Amino acid sequence: MRIASRGLLALAAALAIGYPWLVPNYYLVYAGVLTVMYAAMATSWNLLGGFTGYVSLGHSAFFGLGAYGTGLLVTRLGVPWLVALLAAAVLVTGFAVAVGIAAVRVRGASFVIVSIALVSMMNLLVQGWRSLTGGSTGLQVPSPFPDLHRGETHLVFFYLFLALLALVLAAWWFIGRSRFGAGLRAIREDEDKAESLGVPTAAYKVAAFALSALFVALAGGLYALWFGSLDPIFVFSILIGSYMVLMSLLGGARHLLGPLLGALIVAPAGEYFLVALGETQIHLTATGLLLILVVLFMPEGIIARFARKRDTGSIPEESAGQRLEGAAR
């Protein structure tokens, strides 16, 4: 079974790499870029949500800050796009550490509320600071590949987002097999018990929060460079954070490939309904309804219900607390 699983993963990777050359038009490449972008973001969110159980609806704040940070460095300071992307991500990560120190003091619904408040604050700040950000009119970011036509640009950014997805998946895999990952799982199972066993819960939660924000900020920066036009209403939208949560929960938040599976379902479906129904709010209602149904009837996700855990890269479900107890003896 392990050989078969590796074969399937290799086939999936080959199909992902070859996707832009297999589809008949650039619109489907564009849809592929969106799907891979959301897969990378949902997997990034899962570094916090899947390991610790902390649900953040406010990760779009880091997406928006990564986008605007990259865009402002390029447009206002003339920084090369790659340097701007990395610098913005580092700055956002530092901001996430500061926010995390305060945010992880609360749990459950209070943490969700704090995360939503963060998005609202960033949205108001960006819209109000017109002299720097352009306010509600948004920010125009020049393409880093001006010699390419739009379809070719989609092709380039498909592979950039695919590389980011591979990086996030690798980070998730390594963390899942580390003592740090065991500590995060212990927090998810019983935070008070984990602390009594010597797990530095506050430091671990802040580290997971910041690492998750780092990858989401990189996705935001790539989005700014790819799309070229930033609308604060969109990039600081609760909807983006809800998509990350929905994709992770639908596929399986405790599994390596869960968010990816969720993204492969939700992102194309969202794009289809947007094209079919136009610029209406129906697709927003459908997203909220689907999130409710998943939470009520399939909280462990598709993978947990229909696949064996050892074949899907799941977080090992033997008690993390037991592992830490054994190490403490």
Please summarize the sheet with the most strands. Answer: 2 strands, antiparallel
End-to-end Cα distance: 35 Å
Radius of gyration: 20 Å
Shape: globular
Q: Secondary-structure element order, as H and E? A: HHHHHHEHHHEHHHHHH
The pLDDT mean sits at 85
| Class based on secondary structure composition and strand pairing | mainly alpha
Estimate the strand proportion. under 5%
Work out the number of β strands: 2
Q: Helix share of residues?
A: over 70%
Order of strands, main sheet, comes to: 1-2
Low-pLDDT residue intervals, each spanning 5 or more residues: 308-313
Helix count from the secondary structure assignment = 15
Structural description of this entry:
This protein has 329 residues and is mainly alpha-helical. It contains 15 helices and two strands. The chain has a two-stranded antiparallel sheet. α2 (26-52) crosses α11 (238-251), α3 (60-77) packs antiparallel against α4 (81-103) and α7 runs antiparallel to α9.
Write the SSE topology.
Layout: H1 2-22, H2 26-52, H3 60-77, H4 81-103, H5 108-128, H6 130-133, E1 139-140, H7 150-176, H8 179-196, H9 201-227, E2 229-230, H10 232-235, H11 238-251, H12 258-277, H13 282-297, H14 301-306, H15 320-328
Antiparallel strand pairs: 1-2
